[in-house]
Amino acid sequence: MADHIVKLPECSADADESQESQDVQDHEPEKSTHYDPRNDQSQDEDEDDDDDDTNPSIPTSRPSPTPSAPLTDSDRVAVDGHLTIRSKRTERQRKRQQKRLAKKPTAHHSTDGIPLPNELLLVVLSYLRPSDLFILLRTSKFLRDTILDWETSLVKDIIDLRYPCLAQCIRLPRLLGDVDPALHPALLNPADGRHTMGTRKFHHIQPPDHAFICTCLTCVLHWIALCVVVDFAHWQPRLDAGDPLPTIPRGTSPEWNEVLLASHVGVVRNALASPLWYARLLEEHLRSTTRSIRRHAENKGNRRRRFEMTRRDELAGTDALLRRKGPATVDFPFHRDNYYMLEAYLPNRSWSSDQERWLYLPDLHERDLQWVAQYHARKREDENGGAGRTV
User: Fold this and answer.
1) Mean pLDDT, the chain, integer
2) Could you tell me if 213 and 223 are in contact, meaning their C-beta atoms sit under 8 angstroms apart?
3) Is 135 left (phi over 0), alpha (psi -120 to 50) or beta?
4) Is 217 helix (H, G, I), strand (E, B) or coil?
5) How far is CA 363 from CA 81, 200, 368, in A?
6) Hey, is 304 helix, strand or coil?
7) Which of 17, 182, 208, 369 could form a disulfide with 223 if both were Cys (CB 3.0 to 4.6 A apart)?
8) Spatial contact of 349 and 359, defined as CB atoms under 8 Å apart
9) Is the pTM of this model over 0.90?
10) CA–CA dist 96, 111 (Å, integer)
């Protein structure tokens, strides 16, 4: 720090030489009281600088500061009309603030992916429930793209691990677009006497769209089973609470029921279009079944035979308990009143006493199509023969 040199007053020529030396010792140099901009500049350079303690008698050489660019009107006045504070002190504080922010780790940081190979990531995802995958779809774009790209193989691994029994009982019908177009005229007319399941109306099941799915007997039964699964899951809270289900008089169809059936059809259509939705439906049916088994087990007056289920079986999230020996599961609920006593609805299987295991019905879709083709050809021949006899 550069100090000012204070001149001592001149002494008379006849003053004693010892007095002059005494005056020089008694008069110590004092700091100037007037404002000096150089002092302010040197203090603002660095508060922690060790050069402040140097001997003032030793002159220090400092480089002259570089003149800053001239300020314009836009630099002086802020957007809100206030004067912009600009000085070396504020610039120094701003730089320190930027350094602190750069060193401080951010609380939320986004990454493009997970640092795992695709093989390991798919293995991890295959152990999750379908409902967990739906949550991950809304987590990040990377996980959404990964799950949707590997949806088919991923869902297959989940079903093989968790729902092998349910997948053989609750099956998907074939779409009409996947059937031979030569059979479309016969399939688009299910009321030709082949069966009545495609046109029969239930209060809890909406008939299938003949222009959307195949109307062979196998596919229609698969459609009905899917609708029952969704409707049975919808009424589980009321069944657990012991509240009676709403009754619908015969021959009527209230608006609330039509809206409910339409929503159920939307879920079934999603299961037909997406394997992940189909796995989610199996998960919900397993949950409905375990809730029903627990509800019947708590009823001490119900002496019927039922599946043995522990708390561990219920929390496992698999259908292993349904693979064990138990009561018949093919009872079809023709009405919602059957939900009160329905414990497990698992069609397309039967218990074999000889083999001591469950036997599952094979897929009869192709056989039904052959039967439809033969039935339609025979009916067309009868119509042509009858027309010839009339002529």
Assistant:
1) 79
2) yes
3) alpha
4) helix
5) 79, 23, 10
6) coil
7) 208
8) yes
9) no
10) 28
